[in-house]
Amino acid sequence: MNRLEKRDRHVRLALLVIAFSAVSILAVITVFMFEQGTPIMFKYGVKNFLAGSDWYPSEKSFGLWPMIVGSIYVTSGAMVIGVPFGLACAIVLTEFSSKRVRGVIKPLIELLAGIPSVVYGFMGVVILVPFIRETFGGPGLSVLAASIILGIMILPTIISISVDSLQAIPPAYREGSIALGATKWQTVRMVLLPAARSGIIASIILGMGRAIGETMAVIMIAGNAISVPRSLLAPVRTLTSNIALEMGYAAGEHRQALFATGVILFIIIMILNTVANVTSSRRKKAKG
Amino acid sequence: MRHPIVILFLLLCIATLPSCRGGRSQNDVIVAGSTSIQPFADKWAEVFTESRPAIGINVQGGGSSAGIQACKSGACQIGMSSRELKADEKDLHEIVVARDGLAIIVHPSNPVRGATLAQVKQIFSGDLTDWKFIGGPDKEITVVTREEGSGTRGAFQELVMGKTRIFRGAITEDSNGTVREIVAHDPNSIGFISLGLVNEQVRALVLDGAAGNEANIRNGSYGLVRPFLFLTRGEPTGAAKAFIEFVLSDEGQALVKKEGLIPVK
User: Fold this and answer.
1) Which residues, at least 6 apart from A21, have a Cβ–Cβ distance to it below 8 Å?
2) Cβ A225–B172 below 8 Å, yes or no?
């Protein structure tokens, strides 16, 4: 008995150490990033960093405004494309198709999530960019191209979580609605979508997180120009691609400015997550 | 430990251990810096170590600025830079090991054959936005540039732009290869890459009446030339010295010429 108790204690201790090392890695990354990135922001002024539109690190001008706008544009574009398609797909899979069809299609869609982003980027460069250039003009490398590719990339996230939350609705909801004489579409629109709302919102937020953090595919197809895009066909640079594009050669203050880019991205994502958490928890409370 | 997979994994770890050699021998030379010079330095190192197996040459990338920093701090014996040193970097000992032309490239279907450096400057500063102003079709110019910190961009900035900035709307890519790839597929684009990397997919513009070739670079009529520099802290010694001597020898310079660069002699 004594031996077993001892072993129990050892296992508990080992698990504790492992668990805390995971958390401490997160803490180390955060502290390191802020330690590297914030001094330069205060040196040249936080306002210049956030609102300046000139990014010429070799001339000591570090304005991130075009990249902040770029990240927001590209992410919103991905949402505009990904959310309707994803939601429609989820509704069809749960409400308008047989179990067999669902059993085939859902795993296939989840497979999409396993394709490396560089492959999406490559497809974008080879197929989408020339198509946009020849059809709409401009360089092809554009907000539009990045939005479409990111919209496709977030589909699996949106579809699989929405499907799960639609399926989790108790059958009584559906049956009750149909029994009251509602059509299938009325049931979906007025009963099921509101009931699955928190799951659907969670899927959209996770998709948004993937879109704003995506780097490789965006570098390949967005064109990475440092100006605020004037149209959907203009090239754009996001915060993530700014870091990845320039880190290879950056030294000194340039390197610190890239860490500052990371800090700002970190803060934007924190804000998004907090807003999402607050709205979903408020909804839960309201429901009771 | 009962799982065969765990044991297999551990064995694999042990088997790969010898490949991470701890500590370097006295004869190892670390060469680090510009990614433009790196492929050529790899070539030199390969041929050099064939005849002198006792010396190891370890070539690393990182970019010109990183190479200069590493050389200053002593992290490498030889730094590589594909741009001229700035005033505060001049305390390093510099050796020109080769020269490289910069080519201004366009799509092969573009009717524009040549331009003046002043026009190129206007295009990259965003003042000249349409091919029709320099004898081409009525199409907007797609300008492709390199990212901040790149040695190629640094050289272009210095040789063509001077104090003028490359305009913000220019498409930015992170390697010579990607710039060439984009220009090869976009009929309205213009970009700059290393002269040695121009191939049949793109066409190099004739600048101020001179085509980019060895003769024109030697007689000075083609202006877009940058030095490839090896940097050392003080006079090179020992294995580093032997390697630099090899690079500057006829054999080393012949290698350079074969790869499309301009030898120094």
Assistant:
1) none
2) yes
For chain A, which residues make up each domain, given as ranges?
Answer: 21-287
- Six token digits for residue A193: 């979508």
Q: b/e per residue, A116-150, with b = 16+ CB within 10 A?
A: ebeebbebbbeebbeebbeeeebbbbbbbbbbbbb
Model pLDDT for residues B69-87, shown as the tens digit of each residue = 888 888 888 999 888 888 8
Is ipTM > 0.85 here? no
Does the beta carbon of B149 lie under 8 angstroms from any beta carbon of chain A? yes
Question: Is the Cβ–Cβ distance between B176 and B152 less than 8 Å?
Answer: yes
With 80 as the cut, is the pLDDT of residue B194 above it? yes
Strand, helix or coil for residue A101: helix
Per-residue model confidence as pLDDT tens digits over A90-135: 999 998 888 899 889 988 988 888 899 999 999 999 999 999 999 9
Tokens describing residue A68 = 């902040």
Tokens 């009750």 correspond to: A176
Tell me the three state secondary structure of residue B231: strand
Is residue B185 within 8 angstroms of chain A, CB to CB?
yes
Taking the CA of residue A19 and the nearest CA in chain B, the distance in Å comes to 21
CATH superfamily membership of A21-287: MetI-like (1.10.3720.10)
pLDDT of the residue at B8: 64
Token pair of B209 as six digits: 């009446």
Query: Is B186 in CB contact (< 8 Å) with chain A?
Result: yes
> CA-to-CA distance for A142 and A70, rounded, in angstroms?
11
